[in-house]
Amino acid sequence: MNLISRLLLFLLVVGFLGTLGCTYSANADSSNAGSELQETAGMASNETGNRLSVSGQTMGIETVNCAVHIKNSTVNITSENRTYKVYTAAPAAKGNYPAIVLIHSFKGFEPGYKKMVDRMAADGYVVIAPFWQTYSNSPSDAEVEALVRNSIAYLDKRGDVNSDKLGLTGFCAGGRYTMLFLPQIKEFKTGVAWYGFPYTGGSEIQPDKPVNLIDQLDVPMLMMHGTRDQASNISDIYRYAGELDASDKYFELKVYQGEPHGFMITKSGELSESFVAQDAYKEMISFFDRTLNNSSSNLTTKFH
């Protein structure tokens, strides 16, 4: 195969790999002429891509990880005279991005949440995930609210955040906090509650039930739930949705048949890559895109 033929083959493969959003490189050599080609295509994700190498009369394909164009770190913030670690990730390119506060479940900040935060950053969001169980497995609602508010204050100081475009999302206990804090923390413009608990509350450390704060809710909310959720029965979510509707509060509800509680994170703590988990993630990103970024959407017209 002569040099021109190899170059044409290289370009065809490059075009295919470019659709994967990967970073890749290739080299081509000839006994008559030597040249080195390098190509970088698109924003990469956490997915696996390919590197094509062409040398002389041989060609090989090697599996590599695509480079992710994000910046991430674990930093400390202060809340009520206590220091908390928070994990944060953002697009690497300079810009003014919408931001999301992510509240993990009762099982802590498992590896799957880190991967999700990174993936959300690759999708164009600055994300902060506070480790809210630093001092107690079951802190009071007031402690968590203060930490969330201080997470917002941290975001406000960043030069890459559009403070007018803040969203909230949470899982399990974090789903309840999403239902609880969206009506109370007015900086949030939208939220996604994953398998939350709208009727949990009424105790000393959890005085309020999310359902009792519906009248204060002024922003759109997406709820994600599975029909086989034994911790938070789907019947409670349908009931809560009915009360939201009766109060003319905008919400969306995505129910996955047969899915249990916590279906986004596997038993080993990793981010699930099942069809449902991938679809649910896309639903979340689409909802944030529509409610935070799309100025022409009906939701933005209604709520902003």
Task: Please give a structural write-up.
With 304 residues, the chain is of the alpha/beta class. The protein has 7 helices and 12 strands. The protein has 2 domains: 3-65, no CATH class; 70-295, Rossmann fold (3-Layer(aba) Sandwich), CATH 3.40.50.1820. The strands form 3 sheets. An 8-stranded mixed beta sheet has the order 5-6-8-7-9-10-11-12, with helices on both faces. A two-stranded antiparallel sheet has the order 1-2. The protein has a two-stranded antiparallel sheet with strand order 3-4. Strand 5 (70-79) and strand 6 (82-91) form a beta hairpin. Mean pLDDT is 82; it is low at 10-67.
In short:
The chain has 304 residues and is α/β, with parallel strands linked by helices. It folds into 2 domains: 3-65, no CATH class; 70-295, Alpha/Beta hydrolase fold, catalytic domain (Rossmann fold, 3-Layer(aba) Sandwich), CATH 3.40.50.1820. The protein has helices at residues 3-18, 111-122, 141-156, 173-181, 234-246, 275-293, 298-303; strands at residues 23-28, 35-40, 48-55, 58-65, 70-79, 82-91, 97-103, 126-130, 161-171, 190-194, 221-226, 251-256.
